[in-house]
Design brief:
732 residues; alpha/beta; 7-stranded mixed beta sheet; 6-stranded mixed barrel; 24 helices; 27% helix; globular; binds ligand MGD; binds iron/sulfur cluster; binds molybdenum atom
Length: 732
């Protein structure tokens, strides 16, 4: 007999409410929850593939210990933790705590309790070496927020927006940036029908750009130029919100002077777009100035963040919103009130800029430091390779896949092989797991309880993210791990190490999502003798919630709560302002103006630009192992049909793609939605170095191999050029 249970899909940060069909203890099907008031039955292929992920014959059900260069053997989880704890203690004794690093990847969204316990473990041993995928994703978001400041009343509502700019993001596929993640295709269609004027800047006519009122199909890497151009037009034509600027913004003169360089003609020529479209985009965006609650956001995705100047692009996005006064005002409804995070008083006033970079914790290479985005992951491989005091000797990889995802795959390979201990927490043998000393398989998401707190908190990661209704849900575990499995929840692994190493671990009630918080996080120390349950950890994480977890648990499935919060006026005598003239950003903008447009490499040697993209059936490297859901098993190198013709190529041909740094094979495929000269290809495919050349049609190839971490990188966050990569195409 089939039982159905409401559950939360945690394959990606959208956190859709789903129905899990369970037959004799086995997950057999996932469907959308039509009764859910927020998701209304929406799912995507990745969510519907959860049964295949949970029941996959290749899923690891026992911890693996390396037995020889190419083989692993089963080891009991307690024995594995004994051995790992001993090894860590011995290495700390010899090399100090900085030799131990934890890297948390995208899979952490499936296991939201784990990061807090992992951080507490590192603090317990005294290591500052906590890295995440955030710094090889969109670190510019955190830098820009710090340089600009935040708005204490939060953002405007997608549902009432007059206009909305999406720069290098494709929410229809990614469900992660640019527009609300609950059925983004439908949300964008509805917005279009409502009259919201969507402006998209992307070198491809993406599924999102198809909904655009204006699509600026610009050359990649020109986002700072285009955004500065939009600002220049809005300022020159006096379309801005003068009253808001006078009251709440500083730096207008500095910005005005700097963006004046970016005349419409200059921008149009440089970005290869139509000048009239550029001007129309500026006028359209600013057309709601002065109409309370009707403006809209500028949201940026991985495209601009990976094409250098990501922080500057994000910053100019904030400048556009602030110049237009597109922030919630006193008397407006609060767009995204907290539910499973603590209540706060939304006030129509600035949270002035704060320190966002140059934190005390230094890397030993490239003069990089920790920033508001975290430790620079692009430099972690160097930290493993560079001998001397502080060298990283141990990496615990929590739900990440460095061999597929980190920039410069060849360097990552060398670095991981150089480690004294590599522990990978993953549910299958990934390219990174193949190099590990131990692989610790976890329970999978529907085998553990969950809340929607993580998705709610995503609004602090970037504008346009998280739920745009006061929505919350709790779901218990709906299935048990397969019979005979010896799997360890990720948090329980760190707890197990903590027990063995005599640490006092804790969870904090908010894990960095408390930017708008008045209250400080509550630290709950864990009972290190009697193991807590995952539910108890969720209780700690939601300790200060506006709507208690107890209350949320009373409702089966998700619910939109009656939280009617109104933005309060500015405190009298408050003088803090948002900053749109940050000196470092203004200097970088001048540098952009000074650099030749195709700056990175000689155009003749590398005439194409390889840009990032996402595929609907996988999330980075995860899901590739699932046959049913994956469509193609490789990552095509999409190119414009004219380019293929010019090179004498047809769809399906194998080519060599060379960057100034390295080369990979690729299988070309015609895609007329692309600009000429662009290759659009997703990352996190292929195998370890040497493994994919002959198997490119089976497993694809790894675009990260084309990236250098030492040339063309952001000097603050360390993120290298990972999109807009100069490449050459050779027939083979
Ligand atoms: N060239 C290039 N490089 C890129 C990008 C790009 O666009 N171009 N994108 C970058 C971005 S945005 C990111 S976020 C990073 C991603 O970097 P990573 O997060 O390191 O890479 P993923 O492939 O997402 O790895 C996630 C891993 O988590 C595992 N996993 C999934 N669910 C669970 C779970 O419940 N428990 C555990 N323990 N593991 C689980 C998956 O099997 C997978 O191996 O890559 C970056 N690298
Ligand atoms: N289905 C699916 N969903 C995912 C993921 C996945 O792998 N698959 N990954 C998840 C992760 S880790 C992340 S970070 C998010 C990312 O979410 P998004 O940021 O929305 O990622 P993409 O869909 O790759 O969209 C990036 C867009 O930028 C464009 N682009 C590339 N270079 C440039 C440039 O220089 N300038 C401009 N203006 N555009 C450029 C590309 O053509 C592409 O359309 O998605 C998440 N969701
Ligand atoms: S969008 Fe994300 S959360 Fe929703 S069903 Fe797909 S993978 Fe799951
Ligand atoms: Mo990402």
């Amino acid at each position: 007999m089939t039982n159905t249970h409401s559950a939360i899909c945690r394959v990606c940060p959208a956190y859709c409410q789903i129905i899990a069909h369970v037959d004799a203890g086995k997950l057999t099907k996932v469907t959308g929850d039509k009764d859910d008031p927020y998701f209304k039955g929406y799912t995507c292929p990745k969510g519907r593939a959860l049964p295949e992920q949970h029941n996959n014959p290749n899923r690891l059900l026992h911890c693996q210990k390396r037995a020889s260069a190419n083989t692993f053997e089963n080891i009991g989880s307690e024995a594995a933790m004994d051995e790992i704890a001993d090894k860590i203690a011995a290495i700390i004794e010899k090399h100090g705590p900085r030799s131990v690093a934890v890297y948390g990847g995208t899979g952490q969204v499936s296991t939201p309790v784990a990061p807090s316990v992992a951080v507490s473990f590192l603090m317990g041993i005294g290591s500052p070496m906590h890295f995440t995928s955030s710094t090889i994703d969109q670190p510019g978001k955190h830098i820009a927020m710090a340089a600009h400041g935040l708005w204490g009343a939060g953002e405007l509502d997608f549902n009432t927006a007059n206009s909305w700019i999406i720069v290098g993001a494709n929410p229809v596929i990614s469900k992660a940036s640019g527009a609300p993640g609950n059925n983004p295709a439908q949300r964008l269609k509805a917005a279009q029908e409502r009259g919201t004027k969507l402006i998209v800047i992307d070198p491809r006519v993406t599924e999102t750009a198809k909904r655009a009122h204006i699509h600026l199909q610009a050359k990649p890497g020109e986002d700072p130029t285009i955004l500065a151009g939009l600002l220049n037009i809005i300022i020159t034509e006096k379309l801005y919100d003068q009253a808001f600027i006078e009251e709440d913004v500083e730096g207008f003169e500095a910005l005005t002077e700097r963006v004046a360089l970016f005349t419409p003609e200059y921008v149009a020529k440089r970005a290869e777009i139509d000048v009239d479209q550029l001007i129309a985009a500026a006028r359209t965006y600013a057309s709601a100035v002065g109409q309370s609650g009707r403006g809209g956001a500028v949201t940026l995705g991985t495209g601009p963040n990976m094409s250098l100047h990501g922080s500057l692009s994000e910053y100019l996005g904030y400048c556009l919103m602030s110049v237009c006064g597109y922030w919630s005002r006193a008397g407006d409804k609060v767009t995204k009130p907290n539910v499973l995070t603590p209540a706060y008083i939304a006030k129509a006033q600035a949270r002035p800029p704060y320190k966002g970079w140059d934190y005390p914790e230094k890397m030993r290479v490239r003069n990089l430091s920790k920033t508001a985005s975290g430790m620079p992951t692009a430099a972690l491989a160097d930290e493993m390779l560079l001998e001397g005091e502080g060298q990283v000797k141990i990496l615990i990889c929590l739900a990440g896949n460095p061999m597929m995802a980190w920039p410069d795959q060849n360097k990552t390979y060398k670095a991981l092989k150089n480690l004294e201990l590599l522990v990978v927490l993953d549910y299958h043998m990934t390219a990174t797991a193949e190099l590990a000393h131990y692989v610790i398989p976890p329970k999978l998401s529907l085998e553990t309880p969950a809340t929607t707190q993580l998705c709610e908190g995503n609004k602090h990661y970037g504008y346009g993210l998280g739920f745009d209704e006061p929505y919350a849900s709790y779901a218990p575990a709906v299935v048990e791990p397969p019979k005979g499995a010896d799997v360890v929840e990720e948090w329980a692994f760190f707890y197990g190490l903590g027990q063995r190493m005599g640490l006092n671990l804790f969870v904090a009630s908010q894990t960095g999502w408390d930017k708008f918080q008045e209250s400080s996080p509550a630290f709950a120390f864990l009972d290190m003798k009697n193991k807590p349950t995952t539910d108890e950890l969720h209780e700690h994480l939601t300790a200060n919630a506006r709507i208690s977890l107890e209350e949320v648990k009373k409702h089966r499935g998700g619910k939109i709560y009656e939280v009617k919060e109104i933005v309060q006026p500015k405190d009298s005598a408050f003088e803090g302002k948002l900053c749109i003239g940050n000196a470092m950003m203004m200097q970088e903008l001048a540098d952009v103006f000074a650099e030749p447009p195709a700056s990175q490499e000689a155009v003749n040697d590398f005439p194409f630009r390889l840009v990032c993209r996402r595929l609907n059936s996988v999330i980075n490297s995860a899901g590739r192992e699932l046959k049913k859901s994956s469509g193609k098993q490789y990552n095509p190198a999409y190119m414009h049909p004219d380019d293929l013709k010019r090179l004498g190529l047809s769809s399906g041909d194998t080519v060599l793609l060379s960057s100034p740094h390295s080369a990979i094979r690729g299988i070309v495929e015609a895609d007329a939605t692309l600009l000429n000269g662009i290759i659009s290809m997703t990352h996190a495919f292929g195998g370890n170095p040497g493994e994919d050349d002959d198997k490119v049609s089976e497993i694809g190839s790894n675009t990260g191999r084309l990236v250098s971490v030492e040339k063309n990188y952001d000097p603050i966050t360390g993120i290298p050029l990972m999109s807009n990569i100069p490449v050459r195409v050779d027939c083979i």
